[in-house]
């Protein structure tokens, strides 16, 4: 492919008419054209590196640095959430155990849900996207890098706030769904439910920020030639996920805002005695809550779509079908929320509609499964740890998907709703559908992130321990649910005969927990002693493997050109690249939305401490607002100051233009 | 101290209840609704198991293949791709057909459930409270309206209409062996029709998280032959029996002088509180504190002496009583058959 | 991996207006999520309104005049807003500076009238759910208005500094115009819900 093909028929050499007018003449700097590799590296490294020192580190806007922090933080929250679960399992290991009382138990399961959903699952899939999407689309940084950094700081402060509350015995105890009136002013005195509401509001600010940055990165920063049909499936998955975030997360923010208004300033939005309604809360919450599942699951499908072709040694079968399925799932995910509310006594006809829509979402998910299976059918695949976890994903997720079909049926759901059957179902979906692919992805991309391989032998041990531990924990829950055990009970009477099976479940949970200990060991072992990975240890085809491991601060020495959906497989000899960017300023290439024609050389924001300061002032305002609504007024000034500081030009080369 | 006590109660409870309390299982249906649902669960499970096995075979097959995955990843055989496409499309079509079938199946099952209570002659209003159930038998004659708690007697073999609501938070009424669950929501009234095919005791418990003692919010449906049920209703309409013996008499006095009367009602006495269970015939019930303890002298004493130990967080306050006073009140309550 | 230069992008411009610029897409993204928030709040209002036989729950009718004045101000402001847009695209500094001042004033004016809107609702937020929803909708839009006016004023000041002579700044002015349209657009349904829907029943 020649440069004429890439730039197409667009006349890019003529400066745009818009660039006339009252603007200072462009200051030019050295370009990468013709520069030798060593000099190019020195220039780019000086321009793109994260500044040294603590302030420098806190000012970083490098998507890889931010993503690494996100990944580690989310993993810490996973471990904390896991410890919650272990505590609950010890309490439930036998009937009438007195180890943990209801007050603590209710905080434990609420914190488990909140941590896993808002502090682990969503952040970790978004963090993976922050790391990989800019590399996969062949750009130097994520769009709006300061917004991205701000998102991370907001997320950390939200998580710390929740866990400090837990340490102070004021963690929410109303369930991760916090239904009113139980979480309302009358039945939840104290600050626990307020902690839930504000913590939700601000972790969702972070998700939304990341979603917008991801969408714009995918739309505008793709490598030349990466037209819509050449976008990798993982990037598609993150794009669809980000759209789902944009349209779903506002619902939970509205819900938590309404709740806090009811609690703090005495509105009556959810108060049936004064014209409000308690079911309104559930509608708003599940309008977010169901898409939330797909926000967690869709990125994992992208990971599966990245791993399978590499080990099946061929491009994914049915690329277009998989893209359309992703889009279909994204849309349909907004039409199912009522299936969480079948037991609230909604009109029968409406409920039947939601049965149909809940069943229908299984079709695009089925398409995905079949296409992956068809990809694997070209010969005996190379079975390495990432693929093992993908196999685990199939085994577990398909069970979860099928029990999901069961739950879509109204009469069936009325029996198993809010029992351990549902607990089993969604752990099969979320752990099978998301955590197993994530673990596979960890083995798959760890060499890229760290430059070293993880141990294959330990990886296999890890897989089998996780696989057996998971199934031992969650499969019996289907049964105990059918035997009548409801969710969210801190104890149960002996005469119902649930004791032995619960003991078995608890033992499985310990096994499952140990698998994560082994995983941590393997991560540490790999980071310290792993074999050097090289650029492309799996001989994969997408652009993130075209750069060194770990990638330099500027990602690519020159912007790659995508000629195929698996560019590295199509261009075995030498990767075509575009030249002409400045190397003394953070210049990156903006391309057109559909065809990815090169369009603008735009500057990416330089490191800045202001996003951190803005996050601190926003976080402080949120926390303070639990105690008085005037916090919003007092907090407005620091927030405004930090935002002005953030956006005010500092005279860096990046501020020209 | 608390722990061994509650353990002892639980063990005793287990032994006592083993005989009468039903298995709280969806898979052991004792009424038309639960039977329909159990059938549905088995059918769905069977079908899903077949689908799952087929997917697993499809997944395992490439692992058995002789030929290794190709070294040149972009060399794709167009003919093989076409065959694969046909297989995938067929699988998608079969999936869609199964899903449409299951949708129709559940739609018709839903209609079956809806038809169960169309000729219900008995209406019971069940109101959820943190953490017990108020049960009121509706009747056209005001004097026949009966209020009791936690245990719901119904005539076996007849459909009964339950009107479900709540005055505090959301609860969910669920007797697995008779029917699916339905929420009790403040500001809403939900209708659940149930029918027990045979006499028996069917256990259930609250299925919507409702706060501290969500775990200890049990209820029982006690299905009896019609005649026995009518007799039970008539008995329950009677005011409380007068205390027999000095100790019980002293207990009644204490009950009426202490804070008990603020919350509890005992028919035929000045005790008229309505925020806690009606105690007029408490001794005729099988359990205490919404299925938490079996009814016995010892458990009555334990519950009154240490409600926060038995059911931490419950709204039953600790009333300061010495040993004699406690015995007297227990003696009185024990007589309220 | 070896590289093969295949395209030269050195002559590309360094900024672009409208849909060419990533900022425009980012603005659109934020509009989408804020719009979703507004739509859901309006949905919650309608959900509660249809739940009761008479919405307003026997509260007095709101006085629509302050709201109507805000509506007129906002709609009129679209004219200078779009004139400003044309000049921003041509990167003409003087008219852009004048336009930004005009738009800052057009932002402050409705905020002043908004002060009188809250009492004109004739009900407090803690009286009943109807009052709550009115205050919530008006409060949401006021927050929206304040943030955008603040943004406009900061950008106006920026255009008077040396940083203003930059293509990217003119692009920011264009995005600010775009966002103001959105602020006006979201107000129309909220205005109807707050002042005219309660008159129906």
The count of strands of chain B amounts to 12
Query: In this structure, how is the largest beta sheet of chain B organized?
Result: 5 strands, mixed
Distance between the termini of chain A: 32 Å
Gross morphology of chain B is elongated
List the topology elements:
The complex is a heterotrimer of chains A (657), B (337) and C (201).
Chain A: H1 3-7, H2 37-48, H3 53-58, H4 63-92, H5 102-136, H6 145-167, H7 192-220, H8 233-264, H9 278-312, H10 319-332, H11 348-360, H12 362-376, H13 385-408, H14 410-416, H15 420-450, H16 456-482, H17 499-529, E1 559-560, H18 567-570, E2 575-579, E3 587-591, E4 598-603, H19 610-625, H20 631-647
Helix pairs in contact in A: 4-5, 4-6, 4-17, 5-6, 5-7, 5-9, 6-7, 6-19, 7-8, 7-19, 8-9, 8-10, 9-12, 9-15, 10-12, 13-15, 13-16, 15-16, 16-17, 19-20
Chain B: H1 2-20, H2 32-64, H3 78-115, E1 122-129, E2 132-137, E3 146-149, E4 151-155, E5 160-166, E6 171-173, E7 182-184, E8 190-194, E9 200-205, E10 218-224, H4 226-237, H5 246-257, H6 260-263, E11 287-288, E12 293-294, H7 297-305, H8 307-310, H9 323-334
Parallel strand pairs in B: 1-5, 4-10
Antiparallel strand pairs in B: 1-2, 2-3, 5-8, 6-7, 9-10, 11-12
Chain C: E1 3-8, H1 22-51, H2 65-90, H3 93-120, H4 129-159, H5 167-200
Helix pairs in contact in C: 1-4, 1-5, 2-3, 2-5, 3-4, 4-5
What does this structure look like?
The complex is a heterotrimer of chains A (657), B (337) and C (201). By secondary structure, chain A is mainly α. Chain A has helices at residues 3-7, 37-48, 53-58, 63-92, 102-136, 145-167, 192-220, 233-264, 278-312, 319-332, 348-360, 362-376, 385-408, 410-416, 420-450, 456-482, 499-529, 567-570, 610-625, 631-647, and strands at 559-560, 575-579, 587-591, 598-603. Chain A is built from 20 helices and four strands. Chain A is globular, with a radius of gyration of 25 Å. Chain B folds into three domains: 27-61 and 81-116; 122-237, Cupredoxins -  blue copper proteins (Immunoglobulin-like); 246-334, Immunoglobulin-like (Sandwich), CATH 2.60.40. Chain B contains nine helices and twelve strands. The longest helix of chain B is centred in the N-terminal third of the chain and has 38 residues, at 78-115. Helix content of chain C is 74%, strand content 3%. Chain C is built from five helices and one strand; from the N terminus they run βααααα. In chain C, helix 1 runs parallel beside helix 5 (167-200) and helix 2 (65-90) packs antiparallel against helix 3 (93-120). Chain C is elongated and about 75 Å long. The model of chain C has no long low-confidence stretch (mean pLDDT 94). The chains are: A mainly alpha (657), B alpha+beta (337), C mainly alpha (201). Chains A and B meet through helix 5, helix 9, helix 11, helix 12 and helix 13 of A and helix 1, helix 2, helix 3 and strand 9 of B.
């Amino acid at each position: 492919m020649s440069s004429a093909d890439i730039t197409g028929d667009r006349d890019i050499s003529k400066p745009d008419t818009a660039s006339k007018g009252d603007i200072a003449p462009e200051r030019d700097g050295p370009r990468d054209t013709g520069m030798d590799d060593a000099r190019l590296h020195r220039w780019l490294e000086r321009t793109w590196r994260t500044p040294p020192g603590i302030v420098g580190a806190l000012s970083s806007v490098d998507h890889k640095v931010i993503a690494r922090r996100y990944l580690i933080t989310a993993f810490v929250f996973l471990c904390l959430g896991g410890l919650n679960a272990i505590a609950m399992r010890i309490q439930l290991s036998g009937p009438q155990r007195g180890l943990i009382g209801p007050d603590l138990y209710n905080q434990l399961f609420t914190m488990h849900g909140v941590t896993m959903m808002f502090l682990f699952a969503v952040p970790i899939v978004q963090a993976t996207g922050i790391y990989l999407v800019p590399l996969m689309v062949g750009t130097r940084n994520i769009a709006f890098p300061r917004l991205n950094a701000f998102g991370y700081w907001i997320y950390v402060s939200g998580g710390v706030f929740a866990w400090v509350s837990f340490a102070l015995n004021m963690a929410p105890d109303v369930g991760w769904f916090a239904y009113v009136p139980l979480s309302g002013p009358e039945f939840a005195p104290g600050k626990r439910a307020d902690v839930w509401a504000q913590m939700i509001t601000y972790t969702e600010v972070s998700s939304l920020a990341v979603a917008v940055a991801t969408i714009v990165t995918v739309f505008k920063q793709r490598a030349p030639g990466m037209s819509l049909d050449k976008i990798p499936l993982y990037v598609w998955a993150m794009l669809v996920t980000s759209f789902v975030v944009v349209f779903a997360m506002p619902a939970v923010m509205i819900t938590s805002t309404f709740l806090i208004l009811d609690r703090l300033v005495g509105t009556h939005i959810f108060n049936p005695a004064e014209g409000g309604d308690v079911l309104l809360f559930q509608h708003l919450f599940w309008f977010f809550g169901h898409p939330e599942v797909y926000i967690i699951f869709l990125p994992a499908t992208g990971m599966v779509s990245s791993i399978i072709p590499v080990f099946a040694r061929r491009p994914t079968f049915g690329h277009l079908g998989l893209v359309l399925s992703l889009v279909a799932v994204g849309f349909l995910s907004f039409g199912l929320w009522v299936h969480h509310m079948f037991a609230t006594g909604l009109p029968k006809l409406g409920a039947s509609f939601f049965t149909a829509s809940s069943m229908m979402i299984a079709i695009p998910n089925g398409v995905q499964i079949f296409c992956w299976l068809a990809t694997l059918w070209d010969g005996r695949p190379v079975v390495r740890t990432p693929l093992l976890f993908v196999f685990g994903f199939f085994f577990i997720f398909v069970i979860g998907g099928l029990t999901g079909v069961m739950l879509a049926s109204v009469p069936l759901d009325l029996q198993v709703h809010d029992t351990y059957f549902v607990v089993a179902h969604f752990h099969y979906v979320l752990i099978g559908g998301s955590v197993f692919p994530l673990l596979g992805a960890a083995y798959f991309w760890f060499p890229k992130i760290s430059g070293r391989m993880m141990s294959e032998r330990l990886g296999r041990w890890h897989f089998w321990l996780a696989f057996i531990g998971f199934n031992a924990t969650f499969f019996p829950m289907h049964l105990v649910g059918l035997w009548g055990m409801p969710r969210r009970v801190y104890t149960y009477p002996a005469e119902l005969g649930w004791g032995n099976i619960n003991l078995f479940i608890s033992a499985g949970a310990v096994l499952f927990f140990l698998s994560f200990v082994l995983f941590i060991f393997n991560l540490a072992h790999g980071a310290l002693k792993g074999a050097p990975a090289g650029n492309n240890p799996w001989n994969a085809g997408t652009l993130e493997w075209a750069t060194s491991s770990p990638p330099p601060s500027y990602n690519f020495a020159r912007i790659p050109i995508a000629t195929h959906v698996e560019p590295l497989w199509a261009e075995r000899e030498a990767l075509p690249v575009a030249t002409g960017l400045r190397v003394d300023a953070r210049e990156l290439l903006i391309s057109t939305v559909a065809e990815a024609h090169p369009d603008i050389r735009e500057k990416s924001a330089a490191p800045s401490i202001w996003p951190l300061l803005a996050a601190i002032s926003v976080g402080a305002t949120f926390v303070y607002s639990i105690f008085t609504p005037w916090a919003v007024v007092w907090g407005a000034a620091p927030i405004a100051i930090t935002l002005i500081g953030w956006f005010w030009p500092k005279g860096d080369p990046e501020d020209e233009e | 101290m608390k722990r061994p006590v509650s353990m002892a109660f639980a063990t005793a409870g287990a032994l006592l209840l083993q005989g009468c309390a039903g298995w709280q299982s969806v898979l052991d249906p004792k009424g038309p609704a639960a039977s329909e649902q159990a059938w549905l669960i088995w059918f769905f499970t069977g079908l899903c198991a077949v689908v799952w096995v087929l997917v697993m075979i499809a997944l395992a097959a490439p692992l058995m293949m002789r030929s290794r995955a190709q070294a040149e990843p972009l060399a794709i055989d167009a003919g093989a791709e076409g065959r694969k496409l046909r297989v995938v499309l067929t699988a998608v079509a079969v999936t869609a057909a199964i899903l449409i079938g299951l949708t129709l199946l559940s739609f018709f099952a839903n209609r079956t459930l809806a038809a169960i209570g169309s000729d219900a002659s008995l209406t019971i209003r069940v109101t959820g409270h943190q953490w017990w159930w108020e049960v009121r038998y509706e009747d056209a004659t005001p004097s026949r309206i009966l209020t009791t708690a936690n245990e719901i007697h119904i005539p076996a073999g007849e459909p009964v209409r339950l009107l479900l609501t709540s005055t505090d938070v959301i609860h969910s009424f669920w007797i697995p062996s008779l029917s699916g669950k339905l929420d009790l929501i403040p500001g809403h009234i939900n209708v659940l029709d149930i029918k027990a095919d045979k006499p028996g005791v069917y256990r259930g418990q609250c299925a919507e998280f409702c706060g501290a003692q969500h775990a200890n919010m049990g209820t029982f449906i006690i299905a009896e032959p019609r005649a026995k049920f009518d007799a039970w209703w008539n008995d329950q309409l009677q005011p409380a029996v007068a205390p027999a013996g000095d100790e019980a008499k002293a207990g009644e006095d204490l009950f009426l002088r202490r804070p008990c009367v603020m919350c509890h009602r005992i028919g035929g006495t000045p005790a008229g509180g309505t925020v806690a269970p009606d105690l007029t015939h408490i001794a005729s019930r099988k359990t205490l504190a919404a299925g938490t303890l079996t009814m016995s002298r010892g458990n009555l004493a334990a519950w009154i002496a240490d409600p926060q130990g038995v059911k931490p967080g419950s709204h039953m306050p600790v009333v300061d009583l010495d040993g004699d006073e406690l015995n007297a009140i227990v003696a009185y309550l024990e007589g309220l058959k | 991996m070896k590289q093969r230069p295949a395209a030269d992008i050195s002559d590309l411009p360094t900024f672009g207006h409208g849909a060419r610029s990533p900022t425009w897409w980012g603005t659109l993204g934020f509009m989408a999520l804020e719009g979703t928030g507004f739509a859901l709040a309006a949905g919650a209002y309608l959900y509660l309104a249809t739940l009761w036989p008479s919405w307003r729950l026997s509260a007095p009718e709101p006085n629509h005049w302050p709201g109507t004045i805000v509506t007129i101000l906002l709609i009129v402001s679209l004219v200078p807003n779009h004139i400003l847009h044309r000049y921003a695209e041509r990167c003409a500094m003087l008219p852009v500076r004048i336009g930004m001042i005009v738009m800052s004033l057009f932002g402050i004016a409705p905020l002043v009238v908004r002060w009188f809107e809250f009492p004109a609702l004739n009900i407090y937020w803690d009286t009943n759910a109807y009052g709550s929803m009115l205050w919530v909708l008006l409060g949401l839009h006021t927050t929206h208005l304040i943030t955008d006016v603040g943004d406009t004023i900061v950008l106006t000041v920026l255009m008077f500094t040396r940083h203003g002579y930059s293509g990217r700044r003119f692009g920011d002015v264009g995005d600010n115009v775009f966002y103001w349209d959105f602020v006006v657009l979201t107000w129309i349904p909220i205005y109807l819900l707050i002042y005219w829907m309660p008159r129906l029943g």
